[in-house]
Amino acid sequence: MELDPILLSRLQFAFVVSFHAIFPAFSIGMASYVALLQGLFVTTGNQAWERLSIFWTKVFAVVFGMGVVSGIVMAFQFGTNWSNFSQATANFFGPMLSYEVLTAFFLEAGFLGVLLFGRDRVSPGVHLFAAIMVALGTLISSFWILAGNSWMHTPDGVEFRDGVFHVTSWFDAIFNPSFPYRLAHMVMASFLAGGFVVAGVSAWYLLRKHDVEANRKALSMTLWLLLVAAPAQAVIGDFHGLNTLEHQPAKISAIEAIWETEESVPLLLFAIPDQENQTNHFEVGIPKLGSLILAHDPNAELPGLNEVPRDEQPPVWFTFFGFRIMVGLGVLMIAFAVVGLMLRRGGKVYTSRWFLQGLRLMSVTPFIALLAGWITTETGRAPWLVYGMMTHAEGVTPSLSTGMVLFTLLGYIAVYAIIFWAGLYYLTRVIRKGIEKDAVDTEESHRPMRPMSASHVPFDSDDDVAPGRG
């Protein structure tokens, strides 16, 4: 492809969004988990819940900070690279982003300080309330962001006059046809991301026999969550697919690499799409299963990309493989959740080394699946910025040159590499230090105490950075 400002602007935005997306997704799931842990401690007085709450609050703080820093740049890009789009959609996105700041960001920022620094300065009930408000703020934020993104895929409640979108119904614009499915899909992905990270870290601690009581509790409750959330995500994805077939049929055609409109379409497990020749090579598929999954009818007719003009077809290669990576990892998540249920008998779920090691590796899969899903949905919308109404070429800043965008893209890559390294470094330190088992006074089970200093954390004699084996 020729390196033009439009392509480079798309690559730049894709890089920034992809880097940023993993942190809000993680923090949404983690905020809810911290609130749950604090609630369990307040209601039961069990110090194991508080130790877990203290530890995972630290993890949440690092991830939340990385999300804030990495997300600042995105707002600037709307003006620098997509000024035509910003001007055309200002009547809609201006209020939407304001609502997100007023209802979500202020809520998070207002109670985040109490959550992070008020554990021994306020009552347990007030600290629990702060944790709930931070978790609620992350969910409200996802509501507004997903409403805006969904509107770009299935625009509704607007009129496009003289190059400007005018809102005719705020209800229809916010609750556009794809919004409920996208919101549910993203929130569930966030819970899966947080759940598998907690499961992976807890498994690592159990392998090292670190605070066995607390980590058995964490692993057990998380596996119950995953057993519900992983299959639920598949069901939500099915409803989302039906909605996409109705409103964005070209995206479904690209996802399944369907070139000719036909009935009884097979489900392609593997193929090499050839967009130039509008065909596939080395197809491996299951007859009729594509129609059954996509339309709930094994004989259903599905549209082919040959009905879409060449210049309006999505890039099939990225959409096709992105979807299969996401689904493949989703099936693997379900498998681990089911195996965890089977191993509960006799407590093998806490002692089976192969399973615990597998959970460690699985902790990264939700983030890979998340990125693959975003690649699928965003490339499947191309070449439209607002589906069927405004293309990338119409929304880009007219004065941009290739050199300008390339310079900023390389700069973002360099800066984000530093941010990622620094965040990963501190996150790794928090995890390797482990849960501070003696951080609370067991005689005052209903009064949280200040966490013990790092110098008092028990360490292995043969590894001065490993968590203690107490």
UniProtKB/TrEMBL annotation:
InterPro entries: Cyt-d_ubiquinol_oxidase_su_1 (IPR002585). Keywords: Cell membrane, Electron transport, Heme, Iron, Membrane, Metal-binding, Transmembrane, Transmembrane helix, Transport. Residues 460-470 have a biased composition (Acidic residues). Signal peptide: none annotated. GO terms for cellular component: cytochrome complex; plasma membrane. GO terms for biological process: aerobic electron transport chain. The chain crosses the membrane at residues 12-42, 54-76, 96-118, 125-147, 183-206, 218-236, 316-342, 354-375, 404-427. It is found in: Cell inner membrane; Cell membrane. It is a multi-pass membrane protein. GO terms for molecular function: electron transfer activity; heme binding; metal ion binding; oxidoreductase activity, acting on diphenols and related substances as donors, oxygen as acceptor. It holds the Pfam family Cyt_bd_oxida_I. Residues 442-470 are annotated as: Disordered. Belongs to the cytochrome ubiquinol oxidase subunit 1 family. This is Cytochrome bd-I ubiquinol oxidase subunit 1 apoprotein. The lineage of its organism: Bacteria, Pseudomonadati, Pseudomonadota, Gammaproteobacteria, Oceanospirillales.
